[in-house]
Amino acid sequence: MKFTHLNRRIHLYLALFLLPWFVLYGVSSIPFSHGTYFEELDKAKKIPLWKTIAEKSNYEMPPQDDLKAFAERIVRDLGLPLSSSFGAYRQSPTQINVYVYSFWKSSQVKCFLDEKRILIEDRRFRWDHFLTGIHAKGGFEQGGVHDLWAWLIDLVCFGMLLWIVTGLIMWWYLPQTRNWGGLAFAAGILSFALFLWKL
Questions:
Q1: What is the pTM of this model?
Q2: Most CB within 10 Å of its CB: which of 20, 44, 100, 190?
Q3: pLDDT mean over 178-186
Q4: Are the C-beta atoms of 68 and 76 separated by less than 8 Å?
Q5: What angle is formed at CA 194 by the lines to CA 192 and CA 195, rounded to 5 degrees?
Q6: What percent of the chain clears pLDDT 70, i.e. is strictly above it?
């Protein structure tokens, strides 16, 4: 098998493998770019985004020096799904919010430290949140199945780079497309550089 034939095969099969990922990142970029539109659309429904499902008083708060350990303790104590992504952040000196997130469902636990009170809320499902959540999901911090997702994203990124390289090779080996291809290539680099400089 000639190199050019092998290169075309790799390019073809990579395109088929990467197709759902290109669709995913293409579609999910829309709510990222038009977040205000989707927020206004949702506000027009006049339905609360968060719903309180439980409240507990006299709750003995775990130590707060390690927010990751704090979040895990809260998640375990309340029986929230450990298979989801979770973490915590300080809303204020007297409040820590613990979030529990999956693609299909999001919850948050508001921990009022001085009052020893917690408030558990569920977020209403929204397609724009679902799409941006998938788009932004990454990292190796959670362990387990989340690491498998992160490894798959790495594989997809490598596949995209390889797809680009095989495409450039195909373009170079087809002399009849070199002029138009070179023009498209230069236009892409120029537009990217221009926005990078201006933004």
A1: 0.80
A2: 100
A3: 88
A4: no
A5: 70
A6: 99
Exposed/middle/buried for residue 52 (C-beta within 10 Å: 0-12, 13-18, 19+):
exposed
What mean pLDDT do residues 64-82 have? 89
Question: What pLDDT was estimated at residue 136?
Answer: 86
Domain spans of the chain, in order of start: 3-39+141-198, 50-123
Mean pLDDT over the full length of the chain: 90
How high is the pLDDT of residue 39? 94
Record the tokens describing residue 116, joined without a space. 């020893």
Beta bridge partners of 86: 100
**How far does CA 4 lie from the centroid of its chain?**
36
pLDDT in tens, 120-142: 999 999 999 999 988 888 777 77
Separation CA 116–CA 134 (nearest Å): 34
Query: How large is the C-alpha radius of gyration of the chain?
Result: 23
